[in-house]
Automatic annotation (TrEMBL):
The keyword Transcription regulation does not apply. Residues 325-593 form the Protein kinase domain. The keyword Repeat applies. This is Protein kinase domain-containing protein. The lineage of its organism: Eukaryota, Viridiplantae, Streptophyta, Embryophyta, Tracheophyta.
Length: 606
């Protein structure tokens, strides 16, 4: 570290331990040595850049104050932990100079006064623990806007005011108990129970049992508001006029084009001729209806092959006509077909997958759908209905507003918010759900068949749901990859190891391994994952293992050991020989162990 940084750190320590004239001896913090020499107690450095990454001085009997100005000269600092000391005074505003800080633990001290107003400027902050101090005043409301925050722990203080509206679906830990907070508790999306809120006499609403008083009558509109609303009314009127005019002209055209077929509309995008082709470039995202397409274009008509509504509460009694006539939007086009977002009248939004060629006979497909419907798991998105004729397959799912794991990893800016803890949690839950499905559908030989990150969707609470289970017959990787040379047969074959040995299921394990690699490296998958697998294998062979990991994980300070452990699981899953790959339930167990270690480390150390 630079001289200036060393001196500033020693100053920071002198303020923490006033009266201690032998800091160099007590803590090894001596300007004559480097903080990364290994002698400075509580300091961890980045092995490559040799800059200070963590300062952990828990339970060191420190009795002074926090000199953030000196501390934050160390701009590389990710973790500061001073839990369970006797440090007093304010938490200084200059703490926001530590711009890279992800973990800030100050629990169990004597900090008093307001929270620094600059706190929300710590835009990388993931975990904050100020519990068990004497802090008062309000929480800066913008703190709730720091995206990617995972822990907010301020229990046992004297904080007051309203609880800001955090993104509760992303928070893993939240506790404001034993303070003076007041007002209505924001919607915590069922994620936290009473223990997070108790001991605040002025708080009301769920999950506490004290109901909030009815809100006062709404204020009258101001002139400014009135002007805005009348503007909306004019625009609305205009839109209605234009829509009616368009509909009338469409109707007219339809009469001219009429083919004699039963009236109806097919879900169709603007490039309808390409819909069953291989092109994937057109993604207009526009509403597009073609009145010249009718239900009868689904082969012999809806009457011959009605929509089968499965045991779903969402689309009870849904009619095929209703589905076809509802407004639809092309969301995307995958290798096997197109996906439409369909808005039903009652406000229900569905995702309708139209499959080009799933390689499964009609009767076989129906049997599969019925069988899969009998096996329910909360982290599997089951089809709500399906339509199946000789050439067409339509699958209806609940639309998942939070998109897919693919979007989360590769969408703009998103990967930075997708921290290590969330990645390991999603990996563990997905593996468990898949293990359940493999187990239940083992004797039927029905695997997922097309497992990839765009088929792992995220529900409203950001929990994963595996979509499109069993829609595809499993493709034989062996035919495509020079890497793979073994078993040609993707169906059941006797294996003395029993259980999960069908190579059909092992293709899912391969797919899951590629998803793990995607989560670890943040890299896009091409060529069915063979490119990514090859690249990872080559880097690991050269022993530059750390190089493979997503830079955002490294800068977040994710545990290298646990990332390497997960990488090892992924490498087992992508073994070229299906027989050498573990079963998914073994994979689930291995990931769960890593997840538990991660959780344990969070409760004991930063
Ligand atoms: N139920 C759903 N809710 C919201 N988005 C969905 C839903 N199902 C799929 N998607 C998203 O729609 C897009 C297109 O999905 P689609 O299944 O057609 O393609 P794919 O998964 O990329 O490829 P494939 O055709 O091989 O399955 C993907 O980004 C996918 O994540």
């Amino acid at each position: 570290e630079e001289e200036e940084v060393k001196q500033a750190l020693v100053r920071f320590m002198e303020k923490l331990a006033p009266g201690n004239t032998v800091i160099g001896q007590t803590f090894g913090w001596d300007v004559k040595t480097d903080p990364c020499s290994g002698k400075w107690q509580g300091v961890t450095c980045d092995s490559q850049s040799q800059s200070v990454k963590k300062i952990v001085l828990d339970e060191r009997n420190l009795t002074g104050v926090l000199d953030a100005l000196s501390l934050c000269t160390t701009s590389s600092l990710l973790v500061l932990s001073l839990n369970d000391n006797d440090i007093g005074g304010h938490i200084p505003n200059e703490i926001s100079n530590c711009q890279n800080l992800t973990h800030l633990y100050l629990s169990g001290n004597r900090f008093s006064g307001n929270l620094p107003v600059s706190l929300p400027q710590l835009s990388n902050l993931k975990r904050l623990d100020f519990s068990k101090n004497g802090l008062s005043g309000q929480v800066p409301p913008n703190l709730s806007k720091v995206s990617g925050m995972l822990s907010f722990l301020v229990q046992d203080n004297q904080l007051s005011g309203e609880i800001p509206k955090f993104d509760f679906s992303n928070l893993a830990q939240f506790n404001v108990s034993n303070n003076n907070f007041s007002g209505a508790i924001p919607d915590v999306k069922g994620r936290f129970n009473t223990s997070s809120f108790l001991g605040n006499p002025g708080l009301c609403g769920l999950p506490l049992s004290d109901l909030c008083p009815l809100s006062p009558p709404a204020k009258k509109f101001s002139t400014k508001q009135l002007r805005v609303y009348s503007g909306y009314a004019i625009i609305g009127f205009f839109v209605v006029v234009v829509t009616v005019a368009l509909k009338l002209s469409k109707k007219k055209r339809h009469v001219v084009d009429k083919t004699g077929a039963e009236e109806g509309r097919e879900l169709q995008d603007n490039s309808d001729n390409k819909i069953s082709g291989t092109s994937s470039e057109s993604k207009t995202g526009e509403f597009a209806y073609r009145s010249e397409y009718s239900i009868t274009s689904f082969e012999n008509g809806a009457a011959a092959s009605p929509l089968v509504v499965l045991s779903s509460p969402v689309v009870n009694g849904l009619k095929f006509e209703e589905l076809l006539q509802a407004p639809a939007e092309l969301v995307g086009r995958g290798k096997h077909g197109s996906l439409y977002k369909v808005m039903l009248d009652g406000g229900v939004t569905l995702a309708v997958k139209r499959i080009k060629d799933c390689g499964i006979q009609k009767e076989d497909f129906k049997m599969r759908m019925e069988r899969i419907d009998q096996v329910k798991h909360p982290n599997v998105l089951h089809a709500s209905a399906y339509y199946c004729s000789k050439q067409e397959r339509l699958l209806v799912y609940e639309f998942q507003q939070n998109g897919s794991l693919f979007n989360l990893l590769h969408g703009s800016q998103n990967s930075q918010l997708f921290d290590w803890g969330s990645r390991i949690r999603i990996a563990a839950i997905t593996a468990q759900a898949l293990a359940f499905m493999h187990d239940e559908l083992h004797d039927d030989g029905i695997a997922h068949g097309n497992l990839k990150s765009s088929n792992i969707l995220l529900d409203k609470d950001m929990y994963p749901r595996i979509s499109e289970y069993g829609l595809m017959v499993v493709e034989n990787h062996q035919d495509q990859s020079p890497l793979l040379s073994q078993t040609k047969n993707s169906f059941k074959h006797n294996n003395p190891n029993g259980g999960c040995a069908y190579s059909t299921f092992k293709v899912d394990v391969y797919g899951f391994g590629v998803i793990l690699l995607e989560m670890l490296t943040g890299k896009l998958v091409q060529n069915k994952g063979f490119d990514l697998a090859n690249w990872v294998n080559s880097v690991v062979r050269e022993e530059w293992t750390v190089e493979v990991f997503d830079r955002t994980l490294i800068s977040e300070g994710a545990s290298e050991e646990r990332m390497v452990n997960l990488l090892q699981v992924a490498l087992k899953c992508i073994n070229p020989s299906p027989d050498a790959r573990p079963c998914i339930n073994q994979v689930a167990t291995m990931i769960n162990i890593i997840k538990e270690e991660e959780e344990k480390s969070l409760s004991f150390e930063p």
